[in-house]
Amino acid sequence: MTDATHSTEQHIASLRPKLIAFARLQLRDSAAAEDTVQDTLVIALEKHPTFSGRSAFETWVFGILKNKILERFRHERRYFSWQEDELSDEDSFEKLFQENGRWQAASKPAHWGDPGQILENAAFWRVLDTCLLVLPDNIARVFTMREFMGLNTQEICEALTLSEANCWVILHRARLRLRACIEKGWLT
Description:
The protein is mainly α. Helices cover 68% and strands 0% of the residues.
């Protein structure tokens, strides 16, 4: 084994904890996350000679993982039951806003501080991670596909056999729940 090969294997192995964390967040199943990351690492090792360097190596490996997760979603669609129900009372816009379009006093978002400083704060990211973990699985899956995997609504709908309207409802619910959770865990 050459030094370059050994170095590549070490670099790929060093990414494993981040890959596992991301896959667990997406798949909500530790065994499935382990399997998916293992498949990703095998592909990364096999395809490493074809890595062109147009992106960061870590970005390239995460791209492989995202594709593997999408393959798993497509393969396991039958396990997901999506409800086409309407927004519940807790989610309705009517409860958030007054007749004049201003926030209801109880629904008005709290001031979180300087966004730049918050994003630099490790404690904020721990609160966000915790809030993502307590979201219902279907809501977390759609939100993270959109915000972390960078998929557009059409791609999410195709991968999970959702209607576009239901996808937007789920994203709305995710944002409301995350906001409430973050405000409890971060601002109090």
